[in-house]
Amino acid sequence: MNTLRAAIKFALVAAMAAALGPATAASKFNKCTLNGKQLFGKVQVVKSFPDFRVQQVENFADLNVQRVKSFPDSCGKWQWVNSLPDFTIEYVEGSPDFTITFVENFPGEN
Question: Which residues contact 27 (CB under 8 A, 6 or more apart)?
Fold first, then answer.
């Protein structure tokens, strides 16, 4: 009887986890911020100790990023710099904080 109850509890927990699915971009970001940092501005690519670990993907990214040369003042607009960044990123192949796709128009959260 205890084995049956344990099996039922396990099945219920597994079903709830499957129903919730992976975290979505909406649950990762809060008004285009993550961990208290805005996801726009001056960005520097680093190889260690980044603010964010990002993975570049072709489809279904958490954030659409537009490269700009000036005025990175709205969600998803990134200006590359070599010093004094607003935040730093490291490109990774797995376990990113969020995924990005580079776009020409319409940057921002997906």
Answer: none
